[in-house]
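Team,

Forwarding the record for the chain on the shared tracking sheet. I've put the sequence and predicted structure together so nobody has to dig through attachments.
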Amino acid sequence: MKIRIGGFFPESKMQLLLMVLAIAIVAIGVIAPAVAAGIENGQAVPPEVAQHLKDWPLPNKDYSNTRATMDSSINSVNVKGLKVAWSIPINATGFFGSASSNPLIVGDTVFFQDLSSNVFSLKLESGALNWKQIYNLSTIGPNGPAVGWGKVFAARGVYNMTALDANTGKEIWARNISTGKTVGIDIQPLAYNGNVYTSTVPGSSA
């Protein structure tokens, strides 16, 4: 039986161990002058995160990965009364479905990426589309966006990290960070201290 991690197949227990170590230890900081120049007042935490800590500005809510919010009015008593406020179709098709990441909530905006690497900016109140950047590059995932310094960062397919203008969705830069055809991105990135942190994992196929 082969164990599949992300989009890659480890061929032995040793390779599986190396893959786990690669995920746990090897984080690649994609350092771009366009990002570094956007740091405001020397703050390590992006203003989009610092100013919206009560929202959901990071993949798991915060840098501690708590996946929890203590400020919500939703509780065990009223949760049964919740109704759908809005919904949008997710048309991507991937090995694990259409999506494998958490959306980000920053003020009145929701940022989301599907498993075809397409990135969307939506209005929190109505779900109306602000913009979309369509790549249609399939990936196993997980993927997803990060926000910081007026930009949205996301994996473009398996091999490239890209930065989009947070207001328009226009691509600002893209960089191939893979060291080979069997090495690819399989994590939602983080923005911190002027850098974008992501990770690659090796395998026998991509």
